[in-house]
Design brief:
Layout: H1 10-16, H2 19-25, E1 47-49, H3 76-80, H4 85-102, E2 106-108, H5 131-146, E3 151-157, E4 170-172, H6 175-193, E5 197-200, E6 204-205, E7 208-209, H7 214-224, E8 230-233, H8 241-247, H9 258-270, H10 275-292, H11 304-318, E9 320-324, E10 336-340, H12 342-345, H13 365-372, E11 374-378, H14 388-399, E12 403-409, H15 428-440, E13 444-449, E14 465-468, H16 476-484, E15 517-519, H17 528-533, E16 551-558, E17 562-563, E18 569-577, E19 583-593, E20 604-613, E21 618-625, E22 632-634, E23 639-641, E24 645-654, E25 657-666, H18 682-687, H19 689-705, H20 707-713, H21 718-722, H22 727-734, H23 742-754
Helix pairs in contact: 2-9, 2-10, 4-5, 5-6, 11-16, 14-15, 22-23
Bound molecules: alpha-D-glucopyranose.
Length: 755
């Protein structure tokens, strides 16, 4: 849904506004609403968190107040495990319906920062380590929300991948990594779903606070991506309001901040800030405010039961079965079950911080299990430190049961907005409990509630089955029981890698940085890109998830073997359910650049699809690869580009389970201006299409003459020996340019290349 010009002429409004009114509009009127201008009939709009339900303050002019009841849906880390963009859209629509019911114009979400380290306390609010999966899921959510006339707010823009010192830390990231990993998901979501607003992050990026970062907020977001909405700050992220206006930050939140409003007025009066620049900001704000007001809000009643049921259905489609041995799942329903863990009775279904929702209702697994089976319950892990009595009580139950269900949740005190985790461990009590229960009963199922990868190496081999239930929202307990008994066949797959240990993570030596600087030293090698490059084993790979049935892939076909940019490639294959129960399979397509001038990841996710199949059913899947699927960001050219040559297409059930492959050939790379200059090396000249054509005759001649020298130097080829020398020096050393000055020769060649 694009932002159309609303009925009330914005230009008329701006022409009637005073400088004071314009400046006032650039800062919130309160923590949760924009400024209204009664004189001109401009009403405020209401902003509320997000992202996986509404935290709508009961009093919109107070910061920390109880929020109105709303449905807590599965968090982003859960939703992304569905790999189902349409499902994300349904969730977005439901949140928008509640926003309309309780009076919210802009929902502060989705959060979509890349999960650089599993330690980040806010990872539960983020989708993935991969920008394509994050971007597609965010786009689905945004489109769903905005299809109902409620605005989304993509956050936190950008490079906000830790909570440690989030208000002051400077993320130092090279341009290629910035675009290929940390902006790519935002770019995909913003270009495809056109969110009405974007929220800038607290941190600095390469030395400039995001709230005053012209490169991010104007050059990239608007000039390159065509973003048309308005940018708001994260709450308290502004440091210099006039500089923010110049950079492209339209709204400071929260408000009111009269001193900041005065600073804008003073900047215009002093000539430091152009009125035209301020008018542009006001225009962007008015466009969204007036557009949002075209959808009447408030006075409705939340569809509590309908949305609770939807939350349960969504959660069930997100959960990931990580292990299931000896057929311990699905349960038959006639087992004597030992239910152990505080989370069975007091579910942990959302994270801590600004996304925390005052739920309409909450299910608990113990109640549902008691309705279906003979159940005994022990709390097991109420404490963090060792409590042997609680363990002993649980062991007694496990000894007298056919199967033990261990509900293990990371405490909110461990994982939340505002701080990062110190490690990947469960609590000492939880680890001891798992070991003890597994020693007492041969059939143990662990159900996990967490927002990001955890360390399992000490107990994973002691248990038969593991369900990663993430933070599944208020109806998550019902979804877990649906999966345990096979009412729903698990179909989720991991949106992030589970490492064997923390020190295996690619960013380990650079997270969370020191004092106020964090170096993104691992560059583009984040998540599976890093584990692949380091050839490092993992506990569970990106894209992994089990089902109660099995799927086979066949008949891979590509629309063209030799292709050009501008000709999207379609990849088709058949997927068959070869098991005995219906299920859904997530097919993943990775692209691998066989040879490239710059180092590239071994493979990168470039398309995916989820398909439902009855037992024995086969469906054909079609996946499309656009130009971007073959490109990398080249900082020398300041653009995305593809090089001619071979690419492997890898179709897999996970990033580590490639089932079918094909190779295609890009016949012509992206057209780029030559970068050659008088100090370019021989290799630079030979790598540049026009440059190679010009110097090749000269070099061929020199190469044939230099054979003897090569032998004397004991090298295979003088070309290789000289490749990293500037061409001028190659000519000077070898006389290949004859009697003329090498400097003059090369200058003439450079002029020719750029002619
Ligand atoms: C918080 C969060 C942001 C949230 C905002 C309003 O600090 O970083 O995600 O939307 O403030 O609560």
């Amino acid at each position: 849904m694009t932002l159309q010009e609303p009925k009330l002429q914005i230009s008329d409004l701006i022409s009637q506004m005073t400088l004071e009114e314009k400046a006032a509009l650039c800062t919130g009127a309160s923590p949760w609403r924009t400024v209204g201008i009664e004189r001109l009939g401009l009403e405020p709009i209401v902003l509320s968190d997000g992202p996986h339900g509404l935290r709508r303050a009961s009093e919109i002019d107070s910061m920390m107040v109880e929020s109105l009841p709303a449905t807590c849906f599965p968090v982003a880390a859960t939703l992304s495990s569905s790999w189902d963009v349409e499902l994300a859209g349904k969730l977005g629509q439901a949140i928008a319906e509640e926003a309309i019911d309780i009076g919210v114009d802009i929902v502060l979400g989705p959060g979509m920062n890349i999960k650089r380290s599993p330690l980040c306390g806010r990872n539960f609010e983020y989708f993935s380590e991969d920008p394509l999966l994050a971007g597609k899921m965010a786009a689905g959510l945004i489109e769903g929300m905005q299809s109902k006339g409620v605005g989304a707010c993509v956050k936190h823009f950008a490079v906000n991948n830790q909570e440690t010192r989030r208000f002051t830390v400077d993320a130092v990231v090279d341009e290629r990594t910035l675009h290929e990993i940390y902006l790519a998901g935002f770019e995909l979501a913003i270009r495809s779903s056109k969110p009405w607003t974007v929220m800038c992050s607290y941190n600095s990026v390469n030395g400039t606070f995001a709230a005053e970062n012209h490169y991010l907020l104007t050059e990239v977001l608007r000039d390159q991506w065509g973003f048309e909405g308005f940018v708001m700050s994260d709450w308290g992220a502004v440091h210099d309001r006039p500089e923010g206006v110049k950079a492209g930050l339209d709204l400071e939140m929260p408000g009111p901040s009269p001193d900041r409003t005065q600073a804008v007025i003073d900047a215009v009066n002093s000539g430091d800030l152009d009125m035209a620049t301020l008018d542009t900001v006001v225009e962007r704000l008015l466009k969204v405010i007036l557009h949002a007001q075209e959808t009447p809000k408030g006075g409705g009643v939340i569809d509590v039961e309908g949305h609770h049921a939807l939350a349960r259905s969504i959660a069930a489609d997100c959960m990931v079965m990580l292990k299931n041995e000896d057929g311990v799942l699905p349960l038959e329903g006639n087992e004597r079950i030992a239910v152990i863990g505080q989370a069975a009775r007091m579910p942990v279904f959302q994270g801590g911080g600004s996304s925390h929702i005052n739920t309409t209702k909450v299910d608990n697994a113990l109640e549902f299990l008691r309705q279906r089976s003979e159940v005994q319950y022990a709390i097991g892990d109420a404490s963090v430190e060792l409590n042997q009595e609680a363990i002993d009580e649980a062991v007694v139950l496990a000894n007298n049961a056919d199967v033990a269900l261990l509900f293990i949740a990371l405490p909110e005190s461990v994982e939340s907005e505002g701080y990062d985790r110190p490690n990947l461990y469960l609590t000492p009590q939880q680890v001891a409990l798992i070991h003890a229960v597994a020693a007492a009963n041969p059939r143990v199922v662990v159900i996990l509630n967490n927002g990001s990868a955890i360390d399992m190496h000490s107990w994973i081999n002691d248990v038969d089955a593991i369900i990663e239930a993430w933070l599944p929202g208020q109806a998550g307990a019902g979804a877990v029981v649906d999966i345990l008994f096979g009412d729903v066949n698990p179909s989720g797959k991991l949106g992030e890698t589970f490492p064997i240990k923390l020190s295996d993570t690619p960013c380990h030596l650079n997270f969370p940085g020191e004092k106020d600087t964090v170096h993104y030293g691992e560059g583009i090698y984040v998540g599976y890109r890093g584990y692949d490059a380091m050839e490092r084993d993992v506990l569970f790979p990106f894209g992994f998830g089990l089902s109660y049935t099995q799927f086979e892939y066949s008949n891979l076909s590509v629309s063209a073997t030799n292709f050009k940019l501008g000709q999207p490639l379609t990849v088709t294959l058949d997927v068959t359910n070869v098991g005995y129960v219906a299920g859904k399979e997530i097919v993943q397509l990775y692209v691998s650049d066989v040879e490239s001038r710059l180092p590239r990841p071994i493979k990168e996710l470039k398309a995916f699809a989820k398909v439902a199949l009855e037992p024995g059913e086969t469906k054909q899947i079609t996946l499309t690869l656009d130009d971007r699927a073959f490109m990398f960001y080249d900082p020398d050219y300041g653009q995305w580009l593809a090089e001619a040559g071979a690419f492997d297409l890898l179709v897999g059930a996970s990033s580590a389970d490639i089932r079918l492959t094909a190779q295609v050939n890009l016949t012509e790379g992206s057209a780029v201006a030559s970068l050659l200059h008088v100090y370019s090396t021989l290799k630079d000249w030979m790598s540049d299409p026009k440059g190679a054509e010009i110097v090749k005759p000269m070099i061929d001649n020199f190469a044939s003459q230099a054979m003897g020298d090569a032998e004397a130097l004991g090298v295979d080829s003088m070309l290789v020996f000289f490749q990293d020398l500037p061409l001028t020096q190659v000519l000077r050393f070898t006389g290949a340019g004859g009697s003329e000055s090498p400097d003059k020769i090369v200058q003439a060649l450079v002029d020719k290349v750029h002619a």
